[in-house]
TrEMBL record:
Family matches, as Pfam families: PRC
Alphabetical list of InterPro entries matching this protein: PRC-brl_dom (IPR027275), PRC_barrel-like_sf (IPR011033), Spore_YlmC/YmxH (IPR014238)
SUPFAM superfamilies per the UniProt record, alphabetical: PRC-barrel domain
Top-level division of the source organism's lineage: Bacteria
Source organism of this protein record: Candidatus Scatomonas pullistercoris
Domain PRC-barrel: 25-74
Protein name as annotated: YlmC/YmxH family sporulation protein
Length: 85
């Protein structure tokens, strides 16, 4: 599988059943040549005029399955701040 093949797959979090997006880049270990994480661009702020939020880094250990058109990952959502519903 090539990087271009990964970039065309949508990432779904099986813990929340939500789409995270499509990977834009990968992080790899230079010594071993293995992929260590997928990097997904953060969501756009205010119609994209104010840039983007932080990138989402998905460790390779969180990937459950890579299918023909989706990548399933298992990541717990970050805790919500107190007072926000």
């Amino acid at each position: 599988m090539r990087l271009i093949d990964l970039r065309q797959k949508e990432i779904i979090n099986i813990c929340t059943c939500c789409s995270i997006g499509c990977p834009a880049d990968v992080e790899f270990n230079c010594r071993t040549g293995r992929i260590t994480a997928l990097i997904v661009p953060g969501p756009a702020r205010f119609c994209g005029l104010l840039g983007r939020e932080n990138d989402i880094i998905i460790p390779w250990e969180c990937i459950c399955q890579i299918g023909d058109d989706i990548i399933l990952v298992e990541m717990q959502p970050p805790p919500k701040p107190p007072g926000n519903c």
